[in-house]
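re: that chain from earlier
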Amino acid sequence: MADSEAHWYVAHTYSGYENKVKMDIEKTIENRNLQDQIFEVSVPMLNVVEEKEGKKETKQKKMFPAYVLINMIMNDDTWYVVRNTRGVTGFVGPGSKPVPLTDAEMESMGLKVDAPNVLFNIGDTVEVKSGVWEGSTGIVRQIDHKNRMVTINVNIFGRETPTEMSFDDVEVL
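^ sequence. v structure.
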C-alpha cells in the first residue's frame, strides 16, 4: 500500500456521521502527529435554496451523504487510522483496496484542489529567503500543507528554536 504521493480518497461512513468522522480523524492526525501524511479531511457542502411558507432559505446540504473525502498519502498507518475510525465502514474501491479519485473525477465534482508544491521534507535543511530570519538556516520539523506553513528549528543565541513560516519563505539547501 505504499505510495509516496498524496491523493484524494473516499471513505464511506454511516449516514449522519460524516462530520463526527471528520472531527475524529482530525483529532487522530493531531494526536499521532500525522500532519505530514493526512493533509485534509473534507465533507463537501452544497448551498441549496429551499422555499418554505413562501420564503426562500439557503441551507447547506452534504454534497455526498455518507462519504468523507480525505487527501492523504496512502500507507499502512494512514489506512489503519481512517479504516478504524468509529463510523467509517470502509474505503471506496474493490475489496479493501482504496482507489484514489482521478483529477477528472475531482474536477467533475467541482473539488479540484491544487496539491501544494513542496520541495522539502521533514528533516531537510532549508534557508530562509525573506523576513526577519532571512539568510538563516534551519531543519524542517513540521509541514502544514493545508495552511502552507512550515515549522523549522532556527539557531537563536545557540539554541534551537521552532519558528513557523510560509512555504514561500524557505528553500532547500
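The chain is about 15% helix and 40% strand.
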